Amino acid sequence: MQKKVVIIGGGLGGMSAAIRLAADNYVVTIIEKGDRLGGKINTKKGKGFIFDTGPSILTMPWILEQLFQNANRNLSDYISIKRIEPQLKTFFADGSTIQLTGNLPDLIRNLEAVSKEDASELFHYLHYCSKMYEYSSKSIYKKGITSIQDLRSMLSVKEMLSMDLLRTMNQGTKKFFKHKKIQQLFNYYSMFTGSSPYHAPAYLSQLPYVQLCLSIYYVEGGMYKLVEAMSNLLHEQQVNIQLNTEVKQIVRDGHRAIGVKLENGQVFEADIVISNLAPTPAYNKFIDDSTLTSQVNKELEKYPATVSGLILLLGVNKSFANLAHHNLFFSDSPEKEFQQIFHDGVPADDPTIYVGISAKSDSSQAPKGKENLFVLTHVPPLKKGESWIDKKNDYRKIILSKLERMGLDQLIEQIEYEHIITPNDIQWQYGANSGSIYGVVSDRKKNGGYKIPSKSTILQNLYFVGSSTHPGSGIPLVTLSGQITANLILEEDLKQNKGVV
Ligand SMILES: Cc1cc2nc3c(=O)[nH]c(=O)nc-3n(C[C@H](O)[C@H](O)[C@H](O)COP(=O)(O)OP(=O)(O)OC[C@H]3O[C@@H](n4cnc5c(N)ncnc54)[C@H](O)[C@@H]3O)c2cc1C
Q: Which atom of ligand 1 approaches the CA of 14 most closely?
């Protein structure tokens, strides 16, 4: 008999698991509280400008291709993706810039302008980073791993050593580079997962390798086209999708989930429940047994939420010739910046600011001669009861004046369209724990960089997908989380059918 799976939330992880399980003949229902699928991969339009309000950089697109192949489809029949070059333009406080490109001879030349000695280390560094990617692909990206023992069962001692597990990312970077600017540049990649380079394990250094050597990509028409593609596939697979429908509770029979209850009291029965809402908010919202939730909350203490963000969507009546599609405006002191965000829990006085302008690569995203600026500044996760209503305008001023100071002439006066997204919006709209952008932090001491396991420790048939769960955040890893959780369900069902458990 076909098993019924109910997935709470139609974010990327939920959709990925649904595609895979529907392809394997499960009867799948996605229940999504919002009015569209995609969760944090979202879009907003106004005055002729189109903005991706979430991800702007796509890496490892072959993971999406694999997902579509598992359902006997070709991703290229649904979307077209293109490589972005140059990859990233970075601006330093002293007015200098470094352009990052996948063209390594050019990249070496760009680094030589800052430090010849550091530039000569680039290949050694990328080799070090490539090993981390290679061994993650053999282990962490294949199945649920929650400890060093699990990792040891999949990697040789030599491979484990190459993962540099005892160092932080900053310590790894400093083995190769001496110049402050080049250290700041390569350290900053950890923030693509919302983690501090001073705490994240060194194996996050695979991110510069993934971007510089395996390329970064953009989905033509905007990143939301990816959600439309997955949504079309889900309809073709006859997955039942309930939008504008909020789950209130997981219905239990002892330690088994037997369905979910909606806000209106309706119950959807299920053999298996998957939550795309992160484990910490999910347990507290959906499980009505305080003994169970306090037990699990203790287990989850070692997985704090990542940074949140203040996002400005700006439609401007000019084109910034000095900017690229992806730009980073660094802080003067990364030590102080990370201390304020990660230790003091306050927004940095001088934050690093990301500015994405998809119109640079895709003219459909802004009216002719104008540009769509997606301005993201990372801020600490929300504290209980914290509100950005009163402080968003002051921080907006800090952000915009820094950008004007660093070369975006007449930015403020040329804004034609503006929309602000606060950490409270991210929390409210997607249920994100403390308004977290990237799930839970990778912290060498707190959690070794491992994410929350895909299977619940308190209910036998409750599973998780999404950026807080293994293997982590970002489009490729969250897609993998859906696949890894689906594989786990398939394996367990196979064992049960054979009478092994
Ligand atoms: C501003 C920003 C920039 C980013 N930049 C990048 C980038 O450049 N590259 C990259 O790869 N990644 C990036 N990311 C990260 C990436 O977007 C996320 O890792 C990924 O989309 C998260 O997917 P998820 O499966 O965890 O689900 P989420 O997106 O968190 O979705 C969860 C879903 O569950 C639904 N839900 C919650 N509670 C309930 C309930 N009670 N009932 C029903 N439904 C519910 C929510 O409405 C939501 O749709 C960025 C994210 C943000 C926010």
A: 25
What digits encode the pLDDT tens for the residues 337-364?
999 999 999 999 999 999 999 999 999 9
Residues with CB under 6 A from ligand 1: 8-14, 31-34, 39-41, 54-57, 246-247, 276-277, 309, 311, 376, 430-432, 437-438, 466-467, 473-475, 478
Work out which ligand 1 atom sits closest to the CA atom of 476. 11
- Of all helices (H) and strands (E), which one includes residue 180? helix 180-187
Place 499 in a pLDDT band, splitting at 50, 70 and 90. Answer: low
Mean pLDDT of all residues in 298-309: 96
Indicate whether 373 belongs to any domain: no
Q: Model confidence over 44-81: pLDDT tens digits?
A: 999 999 999 999 999 999 999 999 999 999 999 999 99
Sign of CA dihedral 125, 90, 83, 483: positive
**Average pLDDT, whole number, for the chain?**
97
Domain end (from 215, 248, 265) = 215
Are 135 and 211 in a shared domain? Answer: yes
* Angstrom distance (rounded) from CA 318 to CA 37: 33
> pLDDT-derived band of residue 319, with 50, 70 and 90 as boundaries?
very high
Q: How far is the CA of 424 from the centre of ligand 1 (A)?
A: 14
pLDDT digits (tens, 9 = 90+) for 237-255: 999 999 999 999 999 999 9
User: Is residue 481 within 8 Å of residue 465, measured between CB atoms?
Assistant: yes
- Structural domain including 186 reads 104-215
Atom of ligand 1 minimally distant from the CA of 285: 41
Q: Are 151 and 228 found together in one domain?
A: no
Residue 156 C-alpha to ligand 1 middle, in angstroms? 34
Q: Which atom of ligand 1 is nearest to the CA of 11?
A: 31
- Select from 268, 271, 298 the least CA-distant residue to 284: 298
The yes-or-no verdict on residue 413 having pLDDT over 90 is yes
In a shared domain, residues 108 and 208: yes
pLDDT at 354: 98
Q: How many structural domains does the chain have? A: 2
Q: Examine the pLDDT at 396 and tell me if it is beyond 90.
A: yes
pLDDT on residue 501: 46
**Ligand 1 centroid to residue 8 C-alpha, Å:** 13
Contact residues for 167 (Cβ-Cβ < 8 A; gap 6+): 175, 201, 202, 444
**Which of 365, 370, 419, 377 has the alpha carbon at shortest distance from 401?**
377
Position 162 in a domain: yes
